[in-house]
Amino acid sequence: MRLLIALALLLLSNGSMAAPKADLWPYWQASQPTSSTAIDHSRWQQLLDKYLVVSPQQTLFRYRQVNDTDRYELGHYLRDLAGQDPRRLNRNEQFAYWVNLYNAMTVKLILDNYPVSSITKLGGLFSFGPWDETLITIAGQKLTLNDIEHRILRPIWRDPRIHYVVNCASLGCPDLQPQAFTAANHDALLEQSAKRFINSRKGVAVEQDKVRLSSIYDWYASDFGNLSQLQAHLNQYRQQPVQLNHVRYDYNWALNEAR
């Protein structure tokens, strides 16, 4: 038993993880292209306006400062989302719905367990984080964070930029955006998020003749393609083009907390 615990702690300390594959959950594939229903994300926006700190290389969240009233408002927002059936929305509204839901639930997870040094500390003893925990029920279906990202967002939209907008409350993660996603702004925010991450050192750092990339590009290589295809993707957004000759990967799981 001690050996198993030691091995689990070693894996966690090294930041090792097996990235889930995109695996479509057909139940969520339906949409209503002619729907004009718009989901209200104002409660989430107000929380971002009040507690998100934007710096040149990182956005940080003031978890410690979130008061009881705003915790209630976050819970109210999530209950409102849970009361919707996203299959009745058009595709753009659906995208905003799922991304905001994912990010808001992640913030709530941290708040519910605060103080915590890393999201990877949550979950069971042998779990690397809380991503497989059932957190919400929508349209009669119990959902985890992994369900939203890997069984809904990735397989339905098939857009690698999704990795830049779902936030895991960690310093190594693409930034939590200061704007709530909407049907109208979602593509602009996808572009903005990709550009910001790829031009940050946590995304791509050139170190002499070597390049240090975020582990996202290793974990989800199936979404970005081979090194040549990944290089083309990165240089689409890079201010200074990069050559991927000697590559290593890294990721910082420390909490994205504003001190």
From TrEMBL:
Keywords, in A-Z order: Signal
Domain DUF547, chain residue ranges per copy: 87-198
Record Pfam families: DUF547 (PF04784)
Transmembrane stretches, start-end: none
Signal peptide: 1-18
InterPro entries assigned: DUF547
Domain of life where this protein originates: Bacteria
Protein's recorded name: DUF547 domain-containing protein
Organism of derivation: Photobacterium ganghwense
